[in-house]
Amino acid sequence: MFKTLAPCVLLVLLAACGKQNTAPAAATPAAPASAIPVVNVGVNDEACEPMQLTVKRGKTQFLIKNNSARSVEWEILKGVYVVEERENIAPGFSQKLTAKLEPGKYEMTCGLLSNPHGVLIVE
After folding, report:
1. 84 CB-near residues (< 8 Å, 6+ apart)
2. How far, CA to CA in Å, does 72 sit from each of 36, 54, 75, 82?
3. What angle do CA 33, 85, 116 make, to 5 degrees?
4. Which pLDDT does position 112 carry in this prediction?
5. DSSP code string of 79-93
6. What is the reported pTM?
7. Where are the alpha helices (DSSP H) in the chain?
8. I need a labelling partner for 56 at 20 to 30 A (CA). Which of 78, 103, 108, 115 fits?
9. d(CA 68, CA 74)
């Protein structure tokens, strides 16, 4: 009789030892993710569309679309320094650029370096 009960007792003991506190932990709400604003910029053969942008300080994602027939670049300049850039954007294609900017006035190159520069104001 003990031979047939031994495996049953062993299983009961193992089950009791392996049992852990399975009470659900208190749910903590997820912190809301800050959405990064997206700004659309078009670049044609002669200029940016628009030529002036105003954004808030911090991170901004620029979606740059090449509306010209040749590869172009788009840059954010602070004086003579290139702060951020996207080069060789093929005709008809778009590229994303996420920049973390401090308040101030910046320039934007719009396609060719010889094109008029746009203005980017960060508040």
Report:
1. 75, 76, 97, 99
2. 25, 22, 10, 16
3. 120
4. 84
5. TTEEEEEEEEEPTT-
6. 0.71
7. 2-18
8. 115
9. 13
pLDDT of residue 47: 94
Instruction: Specify whether the CB–CB gap between 32 and 100 falls below 8 A.
Output: no
What element of type H or E holds 62? Answer: strand 58-66
Q: How many residues does the chain have?
A: 123
Do residues 113 and 72 lie in contact, with contact meaning Cβ atoms separated by under 8 Å? Answer: no
Q: Which two tokens stand for residue 81?
A: 């320094």
Per-residue pLDDT at 29 exceeds 80? no
pLDDT digits (tens, 9 = 90+) for 87-112: 999 999 999 999 999 999 999 999 88
In the three-class reduction of DSSP (H, G, I as helix; E, B as strand; rest coil), residue 116 is classed as coil
Average pLDDT over residues 38-48: 95
